[in-house]
Amino acid sequence: MSLIRRRTILVCGGGWLTAPVAVQAQLVAKSPRIGYLALESLSSGLSAAAMERLRSAFRELGYIDGRTISIEVRSAEGRPERLAELAHQLVESRVDVILAGGGNLPTLAARKATSTIPIVMISSINAVESGLVDSLARPGGNVTGVSVPLELGLKQVELLHELVPSPSRVAVLARGNPARAARRAQVKAMLLQVMQMTLEFVDVQEPEDLPRAFETVRALRPNAMLVEPDLMFFQQRDQIVDFARTARLLTMYPHRDFVDAGGLMSFSVSLREIGRVVIRQIDKILKGAKPADLPVEQPNKFELVINSNTAKALGLVIPPAMLLRADEVI
Fold first, then answer.
1. Domains, in order of start, for the chain
2. Mean confidence (pLDDT) of the chain
């Protein structure tokens, strides 16, 4: 075989081998691009688990990251002041949809950055009352997704009520928010009347405030403690769980991660189910639906997780009926 012929075969062969790569690159370039705006650090266990749940939900509908869809992640690394800049980055990169991470702050930042790119929010808190959408049935604008009602906290209190005597005092570790003052007053009055339970809110602004908050909780001498859902509390969960254990305080947590760390129990929405809901909404948007016409959904699946070792250490006997209702007993 001549040298010229060998070179021709090699060139043709090389083209045949690289053609699929070029085609695949074109497919990725043309595939839908989803911008994921997160407040939490990408290195956190919560963020890593959330990303895996989202990718799994995408795969269920045939979307494979890097092949038939492209996910661009922007994380504020726990710094809310960075969300606005990151939201603008996603807008400038012209993503097809912005998926706003848990809580209200990522959605607010995304909505300020664009009024045209569809925004799908993951577990916002009371979306209507927070001004994120006009209504659950007809959200209007460019925002839809999932909204978690504050009534979830009432269910957590009901579970505590099964474990502590009446009347009882419950300390609530909360992120200080003056806007919630009226709502708190209503909840406190209702629980006192219906369950003979007194809620005492202990506000925390920064992680450095936690030692003072712990001393305030000790001084209240509560029968139990409730930890509100907040990224800062999640990041400081080991410190909070250690305090509850040292103070021998029966505590309800907002995520199972606290229970995995040694906390007593958690009652929360099913994050996996929320992932499926928001990905279904994204699928509809990619197929032509408008966010304004997609109702904001509320979760209907919840998870109760109990740490039996912690219960034994507290000398607490979990009622058999509650154990049967639990989704998992560690």
1. 31-149+270-301 (3.40.50.2300), 151-269+303-329 (3.40.50.2300)
2. 82
Yes or no: say if 48 and 75 are a contact pair by the CB < 8 Å rule.
no
More confident residue, 1 or 301: 301
Q: How does DSSP assign 238-279, residue by residue? A: HHHHHHHHHTT-EEEESSHHHHHTT-SEEEEE-HHHHHHHHH
User: Do residues 322 and 306 make contact, with C-beta atoms less than 8 angstroms apart?
Assistant: yes
Of the candidates 286, 278, 258, the residue with the CA atom closest to the CA atom of residue 95: 286
How many residues belong to the chain?
330
Q: Which of 35, 111, 39, 121 is nearest to 75 (CA)?
A: 39
Strand, helix or coil at 101? coil
The pTM is what? 0.73
Residue type, 116: T
DSSP assignment of 137-182 equals S---TTEEEEEE-THHHHHHHHHHHTTS-SSEEEEEEEE--GGGHH
